[in-house]
Amino acid sequence: MNETKKDSEKVISDETQQNIRILGINISHDASIAVIDNGVVTSVYEEERCRRTKYWAPHGDKETLYQCIEQKNLEEIDEVVFTSFDRRQFNVVVSPTISLDRMKSREFIRKLETQQLSRARLEELVEEYPDDFSIEKIYENDEDQRIMDDIATNQLGLSSEEYLYNVDHHVHHAYCGFVQSEMENALVIVMDGGGCQKYYDTHPAYQEIESIYYATKGGMEPCWSRLSNSRFIGDFDEFFPNECHAAGLCYLDEEEHRDGVDLCFTSRPSAGMNFSNMSLALGTDDQGRAAGKVMGMASYGKPSQNIFNKYNVSQQLELDSYDHTVEIIKRAIDYAPDCRNIVLSGGYSLNCTNNYKYLEAFPDYQIFVDPIPHDGGTAVGAALQMWENINSNNVSNNVQSTFNETNEEDNDTLPDWPEIKDDEPQITPLEWSADK
Q1: pLDDT tens, 219-243?
Q2: Is 15 exposed, middle or buried (0-12, 13-18, 19+ CB in 10 A)?
Q3: What is the Cα–Cα distance from 272 to 8, expressed in whole angstroms?
Q4: Second CATH level (architecture) for the domain 21-92+135-411
């Protein structure tokens, strides 16, 4: 059994905490809201269940308002925090001069594949191909901003100056899992299809896909993270119809140590992405969201040589992903060898079959799986993080976070990067617009 303190769901001691009620709102897929009352999760509501609409998510140019906010009693809320998977994006354009010329397109693709497409590398390519390759329409946070403002104004009676925007996606998964585990400390492993672009200033389009944290009652310490631009690489397919899928995928990962965290930038898809891609390929849904069906089909597969069907292919993916995850767990243990507690979160942690096998692979460890590992749990995690930070600082509107904000001075040194479109309102992640 795990040794726990009384009121272990509270991250810090009663002596320093304020009585505060926080509403967390997740505006990514698996849209949800959560209420945290003095550090305790009191309610969680998933919007698709209220709507009876599977896979519903808010969109800035479509529906944004939440029925669960209208249906549930949300009285006496002191603070509001929004979280998202990070909708920042930009478009690349490759001219027909390259894309329709077989030799030129292959030469260009080789340039894409030689190293990771960091911001600096993208600028080099723009300079090398000034007439044939460009970066256009950078959307910083305008869609998230529209969604949040609509909800705040029309449903909560707040202005954009009265809420917090925090896109620290994997940290929110980690908080949701760790606090509910009631463990004193734990190695928290978050794996999903893609979270925030945490290093957007140097590596735009690279989403965190796998992260390791060392969690205690005092906070969440990041140890390692792998970030992938696999989805961005997929966008090149439309320009190279005669080439293979994922033209530009670089198999040379880029590793570095930054701000005390080990980082790996890659073009490879995560295990979660692979299940989503398989879901789409097998026709289980038209959005790649039915990864759970692929995991279910894997149980019916048989390791039969030269026999390929949806069950056997799914099982092979299941086995490969298990080996991959075991290596990540071993990596996590290396960061804190004396810690015997492991927490799994992120949508990939819904893989129940593999979860049981980890218990066999690591018999000397307590393993806790976040009960809300999909993105719906980030509403819980964002509110819990906000509550901890408010109490740590003892100031209700002085929330701190580990999210790396883009340095505007650094951006001024990047003359080739296009101007941000200015016809939509902007908001800086984790920036309080004004005191409440």
Answers
A1: 899 999 999 999 898 888 888 876 6
A2: exposed
A3: 31
A4: 2-Layer Sandwich (3.30)
Q: Structure tokens of 264?
A: 């790996």
Cα separations (Å) of 308 from 298, 301, 314? 12, 10, 10
Q: For 197-209, how does the pLDDT look when each residue is reduced to its tens digit (9 = 90+)?
A: 999 999 999 999 9
Q: Please tell me whether residue 432 adopts helix, strand or coil conformation.
A: coil
- Helix or strand or coil: residue 424? coil
Pairwise CA distance, residues 185 & 170, whole Å: 18
DSSP-derived 3-state class of residue 110: helix
Both structure tokens of 347? 């949508």
Using the structure block, give the residue that is written with the tokens 């039969």: 304
Indicate the residue type of 254: E
Tokens describing residue 377: 């749990």
Q: What angle do CA 33, 35, 37 make, to 5 degrees?
A: 170
Rounded Cα–Cα distance for residues 436 and 104 (Å): 57
Residue 379 identity: A
Q: Which two tokens stand for residue 228?
A: 């992938």
Amino acid at 85: F
**Domain extents in the chain:** 21-92+135-411
Count the neighbouring beta carbons within 10 Å of the beta carbon of residue 12.
Answer: 16
